[in-house]
Amino acid sequence: MELTSEKLRLTPQIAVACSNVLALFAFLLSPNAHLYPMAIVGIIAFTLIHLFLPACWVNLDSPICPGNFAQFFFWIQVVLVPVLIGYYGPTLGTLSHLPPDSLINFAIGLRVLGYVFFSLGFQFLSWPSTTSAKSNNANRVEPISDVTMALLAAFALIGLIGWWFNYGGIGGFIAYATSPEEQRLRDEEATSITGALGNLLRHFLGFAIVWAWSEWIQRRDRVQNLLPMLIATAAVVCMLILANFSYNRGSMAVPILATAAAFSQHVRRISFTIAATGGTLLLAFAFIFGEYRATSMEVSEFSMDQVSSLNNQQGIVDEIQIYGAGPQLAATILEGLETESHTQKSGTLLSSLLYPLPIFGKPYRETSGVVRFNNMIYGDADVYDQNIPYDAELYLNFQGFGVAVGYLLIGGLVAFVHRKFLFAQQPITSYAWLTLGIWLVFPASFPVLAQICIYSLWPIYAYAVYESAFLTVNVGSDSEQKEPVLP
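Request: output the structure for the sequence above.
Response:
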């Protein structure tokens, strides 16, 4: 029997379905399966969505893309986390106690509801074909314009100033990077104008590095010059780590992923196998780095034996549940709502979105989801280090209807970003769109998303203005490679 391309196309979906069926059996055999029957519904829902909603299928042409990242993160939340809870129970983390199993089960149902409507929103607002548009990318070979060079230099200079302000120079950077204790001491200090400017402006440096790389690779033969491009890309990744170094792992990991995605789209496709292997290694490093962050050791005091000791099974399970926004977090909100008085049951969404704003957002912080959620965890302590998940905040404000509509809108927004990423004409544009796509999905918290938009994305905003003002006319006939027209 002839093996057609259509049958080959279905292979990834069958693989996803088979892996989820195995996950379902693994959960059913777990000692806690009877406590959380909604997990069964979630695993089945994830499997069916990946069989019948084509936009949600694994995109093998562009393995590192917003759509694949969103589906992978939801797989962690809807499939992997419940299976881990089935065997290890819910992770306590910073919670003072675990909510009742009935509320955790209800919270799993909210997550499943959110995922279903996210997928529907993604499906309805996606083009019929979500395959890569790399063949449509224009290879601009004209000289770099004076405006581009001037802006690149300005971005780099602004970023260097911000980097210097943020770390206090090279010596300050070394002290910060080699000692988690130094980071904790800095967090306890009052925010200064210099520190605030440093945190705001330093993001221009990493963006300038990727922009310069983007302009360079567009003027090279991508077949004959693959090795130099690989070396240059590796150098860019190293520079990004130095430019964006932080004990917040996401601020380092996202630029690396976005650079890899831009390379895959515009230089040489990174296979799904290599992308999965690289992602696994990145997650492993992020876990080890997170464990190191919690210690008081200097880098010089670290040994390979201590690195191995950080890699413990329970620690990995706890990390996945915490960063996968385990249902016990949303259940804590549900439990808190049962004990709050009627006067406390006001909305939090607007306050949460305004929470990160300096000065203007201060009056709203006490009524934000961040404060209410952390008060439910810690009492009245002045500690606000836990992120309130999307589904919990939407339920807090609008009940189940809000979870459905909210995730429907988020799914549509991610579909828009995904489409823009696939049809980006320059590597730097792909880099920007994947950055936005990741932060829309992870860590799935409105206050965190607002904070990223307020403090971290100014280079992207500035580049968007530049692209709109100076590149639209220059693209001309090259922009014939447009997005497909809906039938």
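The longest helix spans residues 390-422.
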